[in-house]
Amino acid sequence: MALPRGWLDQNQNFLGLEEPWCHPDHAGLYVIPAPYEQTSSYIHGSRQGPRAILEASHQVELYDETVGFETYREWGGIASSVALELGEKADREAVDEIQARVQDYVDAGRFIVTLTGEHTGALGAIRAHAKRHPEMCVVQVDAHGDLRNAYQGNPFSHASVMARVVEDKLPLVQVGIRSISSEEVALINATEKISTFYAYQILDPSGPYRGRASAWVPDVVKACTGPVYLTFDCDGLDAMLVPALGTPEPGGLGWYDMLALVTGLANGPGIIGMDVSELAPIEGLAAPQFTVARLIYRILGRVLTGRKQATQTKTHS
User: What is the distance, to the nearest Å, from the Cα of residue 11 to the centroid of all Cα atoms in its chain?
Assistant: First the structure.
């Protein structure tokens, strides 16, 4: 069966999957590249992030020993669309275009992974999911608060994307924050729907969790008021693990910190969709995009495991 127009073949798709495993008619999961970059304020190049992740994913082992299966098979396949061409669209117009693209696939009942450039691109995907799942909670893994009302005069700056989420009246749980302004802290303190877990609180041995591995995860899960949409800015991870970033920050989450968080979310409220942003590839350095591609695949396995557990619980209740 030939792939319909608009979908990537084995040479370009996520994981390099052969048919029928990459066919959109069968796949339970879609990867949507939306390489938007307009307001990067430090290192540019995040528009190249989605392509780099797709290319690196071809080196990811398909069996995940931590969940005990080949994740793509359990999903019924993973289909990857061609990249969204935004042309000269920027700010609200670009966000609306991304939302329209993602909305069609969310409404079709697929699990969507949106790969974007700067974090602003995630807003369209978040809004598409919120339209179908108004009860959802947004979990933001990030080094930065992204809660400025506007940055450099632009309310659609990558530094303002979560302010727009809060304006949309969506509950927000932030994890790993370690670079934030007084304006953003004031908004956090004044808004009941924002729960912030700073990096120093959850990772520093002198913090309230005493640096104990994963001790903070249950409190993050408890803060979620509904099914989770995961928005993952790559700088949420420590810059030593993923240095190819638009705005790198030291002191972030480690590999197993991130997996522990995702496991808790998947087994608790469940994860209904996700996006990945802010990878700015460095020429000649493949490790960052491979790390992110592998992490996405590990997350997808945990999403399925959480769904299976929820189904079994309902069956036995």
Answer: 24
Structure tokens at 51: 């392509």
Structure tokens at 147: 């809660």
Give the H/E segment covering residue 31: strand 29-34
Tokens standing for 277?
């942003």
Delineate the domains of the chain, giving CATH numbers in brackets: 14-316 (3.40.800.10)
SS3 177: strand
Question: In whole angstroms, what is the distance from residue 242 CA to residue 237 CA?
Answer: 7
- Under 8 Å CB-to-CB from 303, ≥6 apart: which residues? 111, 262, 266, 270, 271
Give alpha helix (H) positions in the chain.
49-57, 71-74, 91-107, 121-132, 161-167, 182-190, 199-203, 217-223, 255-267, 287-316
Instruction: Note the pLDDT tens digit of each residue in 60-107.
Output: 999 999 999 999 999 999 999 999 999 999 999 999 999 999 999 999
Read off the DSSP letter of residue 83.
P
**Per-residue pLDDT tens digits for 103-121:** 999 999 999 999 999 999 9
Written as one letter, the residue type at 199 is A
